[in-house]
């Protein structure tokens, strides 16, 4: 979908993609591939191969795989140098950054030059794209939308036009949960397309993308599953499916899909003889696998995926500092998620002397934060306070740096992540010191910062601010307010055992033991295949045996505790 190409929706481990600097018509010829869907738009050509490659480019454009879509459109242009729509596709797949502004302009102007004599619909597609190619998605937004609306009005049966418009209008959600300006419009278009074109891979992919961060991600669950059947060789489509499955709590299924993404990416790299840095989806898929395994309590398996990510990064020559930091962040965040502070603080990452400010700042922030938590949990409050001060001093200079370009880490995004970590750590320290009012203020600020993080930026390496605030409120004797936060976390991440464990602990603090037993049972269901030595597993089983009236056998690893066993639990 267009939003993926024009707004860099996903964070990038590697700052470049294959063939970025290769001119369009010098790109290597891709094979015609099966398993990418069946989208088709009749264009003005008498060359069958040109039509076939154009359709492949269109499918890949819908599915968010820009680099491969560009190759397909380039081959369509080589097969038929007079095919105006091939250059239309080349203009759209170059994205919106200033780096490729000249390439976009040349492609769309070539399309305009060749558009005399093509169909009215094709001319309208090309005119609409000139607004994006010449002005970018922000300045050209109004013109593009109006021209596409005119196209749809003239050709109401053209599903591709409606899908492209919906994909462009998908603006996501603001920090307070309200939809972006174009989001409801995009959703309305896609709901109708789901009804009229239920077998269109691009429609299901776009629906997954617009719903994954909404309050109702389960509305796209069927689409996420259908993508695996409609576009099984489109790694970007599988990645979108895995993200939504993880978001809706279908953790085991998400792991299967994400593993398939990594395997498909590796097969594509082998076929194309490309380095690890060229993989379009494996980097993010591996990071999501770490998260999925963490949600399921599979710490050992998560470590294996994190090591695999780091090995991929370190195998690339020359080394990319950005990739090293992202890989280190996946490992560190995993250790922090399970409370292994010492392991989290031992990153052992050495950047090149010429590493950029954003890379060094993010690495330093991760190291400081892990050291601060280690000090805090060890009762060294003065040392934790000094780390808070160092984190506070780290983010203002980053915020003053120039904005990053293209897929490179932006210093201002790093500044936001570091500031969030500083607020969360300071709030945890203040709660430990008994300064609950100050802790509340610090952690509410951290929550607000967390909501305002940009999607293309680096992932937060700190603990979820709401979890820390919930535990602070329990310490302060405000269990009912802590319960609100814990219930919201469970609703957002129903497949996360950590969220269920927090909810159970809050119920224990409230003295609501039947509710605690139910939450612990849900936790153990999420962690059915978890590493048995983890202290959370032992704590849940001990509670259910002691307070919940559940037999020792029922609480053993791998057993799902029936809810009827909890009916007679007394508060």
| Terminal residue distance | 52 Å
**Total number of beta strands:** 0
- Quote the average pLDDT: 90
SS-derived structural category: mainly alpha
Sheet of most strands: none
- State the shape: globular
Helix content: 55-70%
As a whole number of angstroms, the C-alpha radius of gyration is: 25 Å
Give me the strand/helix succession.
Answer: HHHHHHHHHHHHHHHHHHHHHHHHHH
Number of helices: 26
What proportion of the residues form beta strands (DSSP E)?
A: under 5%
Given as residue ranges, the uncertain stretches (5+ residues, pLDDT < 50) are: 554-571
Layout: helices, strands, pairs:
Blueprint: H1 2-7, H2 48-62, H3 66-79, H4 84-93, H5 101-114, H6 120-139, H7 141-154, H8 159-169, H9 183-196, H10 201-211, H11 221-230, H12 235-247, H13 251-272, H14 282-295, H15 299-314, H16 321-337, H17 341-345, H18 357-377, H19 381-400, H20 411-432, H21 436-451, H22 465-475, H23 479-492, H24 497-510, H25 513-526, H26 535-546
InterPro entries: TPR-like_helical_dom_sf
Organism: Archangium lansingense
Protein name: Tetratricopeptide repeat protein
